[in-house]
Amino acid sequence: MNFHVMTLFPEMIENGLGESIIGRAAKAGYISYQAVNIRDYTQEKHGKVDDYPYGGGAGMLIQPQPVYDCYEDITKGMKAKPRTIYLTPQGRRFDQKFARELSREEELVFLCGHYEGIDERVLEEIVTDYVSIGDYVLTGGELPVMVMIDAIARLVPGVLNNEFSAETESFHNDLLEYPQYTRPPVWKDKEVPQVLLSGNHNNIVKWRLEQSEERTKERRPDLYAKYQRKQEIIKRLSKKKRFYIHMMELLNRGIGEVLYERNMDIVLYEPDSELYMVSAESKESADYLVEKYLKDAGLVLTTSEEVVQVLIAKKNMRVNEKVWQYVYTLKEPLPVKYKDIRRLTMEHLSYVTEHYDENEAYLRRLIEKGHMFGAFVEDKIVGFVGIHVEGSCGLLFVDSACRGMGLGQSLENYIINYVKSLGFTPYGHVVEGNVASTKLQEKNGLYISEEPLYWVGFE
Ligand code: ADE
What we know:
Layout: E1 2-7, H1 10-17, H2 20-27, E2 32-37, E3 50-51, E4 61-62, H3 64-75, E5 83-93, H4 96-102, E6 107-111, E7 117-118, H5 120-126, E8 129-132, H6 142-153, H7 166-169, E9 186-187, E10 190-191, H8 194-197, H9 201-219, H10 221-237, H11 241-252, E11 257-262, E12 265-270, E13 275-279, H12 283-293, E14 299-302, H13 305-315, E15 318-328, E16 341-343, H14 349-355, H15 360-369, E17 372-377, E18 380-387, E19 393-398, H16 407-421, E20 427-431, H17 435-439, E21 446-448, E22 453-457
Parallel strand pairs: 1-2, 1-6, 4-7, 5-6, 5-8, 13-14
Antiparallel strand pairs: 3-4, 9-10, 11-12, 12-13, 14-22, 15-20, 15-21, 15-22, 16-17, 17-18, 18-19
C-alpha cells in the first residue's frame, strides 16, 4: 500500500513516520510513503503558494495551481483515480472502521491544508474524502495525516510482524483491551491477577473477556451499548445454534456490522469479504430485506429459502452452494496425531493456489492474516487447512500421495483447536455429499445443522 502526502512541510511527515514500526514496515516494503512539497510546483518565481482570500478575511489561502500540478504529478502513473483525502475539522470523523476501509486501498493521497485553507476549486477537482481526526482545530493537516497513516498502516498485513494480525490480536473488536501485566509478579504490593499465572488457557481467555467488558462499560458506555445489542442478537440466534452459528460468530468476533434486526429478521455485513448474512422469518420479510439492504450485494449467506427465491427473481443471483453447518461443541481440544503442522507464509502461496479453487488474492489475504496452516513431511508442504474471512473453518486439502495417513483429520482437528484457543466457537460448512460422513463425527463433538444454508452470488 502506498501513501502520498501533499504538504508544505514534508520533513514533518518524513521525521514523524520514519521511526519505529511504520518506518520499519516501509523499509521492509510492506508499505511506502512519500511526502511531496506543494511548493515545488509553484510557477511563482519567489516560491509563493498562497494569496489573500477574495472578499476579504483573515489569513492566506493556498492557491489551486501548485496543488493541482502536485496531484497530477503524484497520480500520473496510477491506473485509477485514487481516494484523495483532505484533512479538515469539517470532515467525516476518522475511526477504526474507516481505517479498516481505507487499509484495503492500494494508493491513498492526502492533502494537508495550512494557513486558513485551500482554494475551493482545487478541492472540488481532486478530493474524494474530507476527513477530521476529532473535534478540535490544529494548525495544519500534517499531524492528522500521520495519525491516519499510522492507524491504517498497522492494518496492512505484514506491518505488525507479530504472530497474530491486527484483527485477531484484539480479542473482541467491539471491546477495549483487557489489562496486561509483566514481571515482577508483585510490585508496590500489587499482585498480578492469579489467573494469569495459572497456565489455564481457557480461564485466561474467559478472564480477559470479562475484563474487556468491564473496562468498556466503564470507559466507553457508547461502545458497550453497541456490544450489548450484539450480545442480545447472539442470544436470540443461540436458540438454534447450529443453524445460526455463522451469524453468532460474526458478531462474537466483532467483525460484523448489524444492518437490521427485528426478531429473527436479521441482516449482518462483513466488510472485508463484502458478505451479507441474512435470516428472515417470512416471505414478506425476505422481500423487504432484499429490497432495502441487499441492493448492492454480490455475495449472500442465508438461512432463508425465501431470501434465496427473492435474490434469484429480483437480482438474477444464483445458488453457488447449498451447505450444512457443523459446530464444535466440546470444551476439550481434539487429538492432533500428525505433529508437523505450522502456519503458512507467502512462500507457500503457489502451492495453495495450485491445489485450491479460489482466487489468488483471497488465498493471499488468508495467508497474510495468519489464517492458513499446512502439514509438512520432511519440510515439504503436503496439505493445508484454514479459516475463511467470515470465520468458518475450511480450505482443507491433502496431497494425493499422502492420503490415508490421517493428515486430513489432523489438519481439521488442528484448525478447530486453534479457533477454540482464541476463545471462539469453531464451525464450518459441508456440502451435500459430505453430510453423511460428517454426521459420523458427532461422537467427536461436531454437530451438523438440521437444515441447510445457501451461498448466493453471481458465480
Ligand atoms: N486540520 C486542522 N484540524 C484538523 C482536525 N481536527 N482533523 C483533521 N484535519 C485538521
